[in-house]
Design a protein that fits this description.
It is a single chain. Helix 8 (212-219) packs across helix 14 (349-375) and helix 12 (288-307) runs antiparallel to helix 15 (383-393). The chain is an all-alpha fold and 403 residues long. The longest helix has 41 residues, at 2-42. The radius of gyration is 20 Å and the shape is globular. Helix content is 82%, strand content 0%. It contains 16 helices and no strands.
């Protein structure tokens, strides 16, 4: 039996190693370049669209995004059983189909029918998340190499930043001149191309084997504590960046979509070179990722505090530029640490990734519920204080893991 297991393990590793040669490139092209182009133009404008369409009530947007994350937490485990049958890389194709459906539905969303469409839309978004994010993270962990992972993570972030230079200003121009319908139309075309390209990503011999009960038991186990707490904090911070910041920007710039696009473009464009430099830096030395994260998260948290005092486009530029640069020194090492830990799990890389996703979305739910409640009596800028605390808590990913 032991010899059989050894042969199966050797066979799996051989397949993963062979696939990893071209797997990273194909995954990078599909996810970062093609789908990333759609994400770049949608980015900050989707939360603003829902905010506008629902009557400029932040708590509606906050509670809706909290619901989306809660649904992900509840259904990600049974979703993995479906992924087992389909295949992890092939599930990326199905996730792509749901992304196309998602933005096709948004194309028809109006203030008159929003309360009828938000329910079905939530189901589609949840299905997209389940069939896209876990398979993507698993494939990324398997297709990247230890010792080069910081550089490869940095490359993916830099490509996102590069597209972020073009995306916001292009989206602002499209919305100003042709409306949201045109924006969603362009996104659907790009996402359709990405869906086809995912079919060329090599399949990996990966199976999710934990039961519902076992997964939740592992989530609260001692060995997973660092990852669970780190990802919880990450989710709490990410959702402020994804949902609160765009709406805050919309209010500060008085709904000027083109100005929002221009400012976002300039800020993102100024950070690309720093991002590429970071990839090389954090791969050198055993403790470089941890040290960089420790310093970066402190500076990043300070940036969230500064954002609470933004009053003009000039403030958005200078504070946003600072925050984007120090974000590199936080997010790059944090992601590299997590992918290192994921790759070290061997055949349990997918189970490990599911625990990460549950923790991250749990952080989003809690963060959004608190922010939505506070928004009833306080300006949403106070949410940045929550993001600042969460940024510091990212350090627990390695402190608790090594405890």
């Amino acid at each position: 039996m032991e010899n059989l297991y050894s042969r199966l393990k050797w066979s799996r590793n051989r397949v993963v190693n062979e696939n990893s040669k071209g797997g990273f490139v194909k995954l990078f092209i599909s996810k970062q370049l093609i789908q990333g182009s759609a994400t770049a133009i949608l980015g900050i404008f989707v939360p603003i669209f829902i905010y506008e369409t629902s009557g400029n009530l932040f708590y509606v947007v906050g509670l809706y995004y909290a619901l989306l994350s809660l649904l992900t937490v509840l259904f990600i485990i049974p979703g993995m059983y479906a992924v087992n049958k389909i295949g992890f890389s092939r599930s990326l194709v199905l996730g792509g189909v749901f992304s196309v459906i998602l933005y096709t539905m948004m194309f028809f969303l109006t203030p008159e029918n929003i309360w009828h469409i938000l329910g079905p839309l939530a189901i589609v978004i949840t299905l997209f998340r389940i069939f896209h994010w876990v398979p993507f993270h698993v494939d990324f962990a398997l297709f990247t190499k230890k010792g080069q992972r910081g550089k490869q993570v940095s490359l993916t972030f830099a490509s996102t930043a590069f597209l972020g230079v073009i995306g916001p200003i292009l989206a602002g121009f499209i919305i100003t001149n042709a409306g949201y319908d045109a924006l969603f139309g362009v996104a659907v075309v790009l996402l359709s191309i990405a869906t086809v390209s995912y079919a060329f990503v090599p399949e990996t011999m990966t199976q999710f084997t934990w039961s519902y009960k076992e997964t939740w038991k592992k989530l609260f186990s001692r060995e997973m504590r660092g990852v669970a707490v780190g990802e919880f904090a990450s989710g709490a911070e990410i959702i402020v960046n994804l949902v609160v910041w765009p709406i805050f920007l919309y209010e500060v710039l008085n709904g000027d979509f083109f100005e929002i696009g221009i400012v976002s473009t300039i800020v993102v464009g100024a950070t690309i070179v720093v991002q590429l430099f970071m990839g090389n830096k954090i791969d050198k030395g055993k403790d470089s990722k941890e040290k960089t994260l420790r310093v970066g998260s402190t500076l990043y948290a300070f940036g969230w505090i500064l954002k609470m005092f933004i009053l003009s486009a000039a403030h958005v530029f200078f504070i946003g530029l600072y925050h984007n640069i120090v974000k590199i020194f936080t997010r790059t090492p944090f992601a590299a640490i997590l992918y290192d830990l994921s790759a070290d799990q061997g055949k349990y890389v997918d189970e490990y990734t599911v625990v990460r996703e549950i923790s991250s979305h749990s952080g989003r739910v809690v963060s959004l519920l608190v922010i939505s409640a506070l928004s009833l009596t306080l300006p949403i800028g106070w949410a940045f204080l929550i993001a600042a605390v969460a940024s510091i808590a990212l350090n627990l990913v390695y402190r608790l893991h090594n405890a």
